[in-house]
Amino acid sequence: MKNETPGPSAPPDETLATRLMDALKPLVRNNQAEIMALTAELDLTLSQGRILLELSKAEEDLANTDIATRITLSVAATTRAVDALYRSGLVTRREDEADRRIKRIGLTNQGRAIISAIMEIKRRSVERFIAALSSDERTALDAAVNTIATLTATRWPADPDTSMSSFREPRA
């Protein structure tokens, strides 16, 4: 239950959500072709790309079961994808120090370079968008970004791997 009811001029939540998603779609789609070309060139599957991304966000090497949970894939399918990434030299695999039955998976320098290349593609895409804006439009965008950053910092889970169900309602 929300602590606050929208004012008379506030749009319904679902309308605002749709408008925000629609507004961001061009920024996301603008770089998808370039990212897909890079992953195709590297012969990466979607699951393998998701694994690399999750490993890049992790503070330590992850077990296959942890990776599977984060990307919502079966452990068997995750293991197959990790094996392919290992053979390609994109991830490391080592025994867990506490339990030798568990294999810990981490990124190699080559794996980190792929994630960096993808992030660079995304950054350049957004920079092209911003470069096309007038000074007033950049100022308005800056204010909107600040608002979104503040709202997500105060109401969104601190752990980016936490599900939407953990969204924090505003405090009274």
How is this structure best described in words?
It is a single chain. Strands 1-3-2 form a three-stranded antiparallel beta sheet. The protein is mainly alpha-helical. It has helices at residues 13-41, 46-57, 64-71, 75-87, 109-131, 135-155; strands at residues 62-63, 91-95, 103-107. The chain has six helices and three strands. Helix content is 62%, strand content 7%. It has one domain (24-155): Winged helix-like DNA-binding domain superfamily/Winged helix DNA-binding domain (Arc Repressor Mutant, subunit A, Orthogonal Bundle). Residues 161-172 have low confidence and may be disordered.
Question: What tags apply to this protein structure?
Answer:
about 5% strand, HTH_MarR-typ, Arc Repressor Mutant, subunit A, 3 strands, globular, mainly alpha, WH-like_DNA-bd_sf, MarR family transcriptional regulator
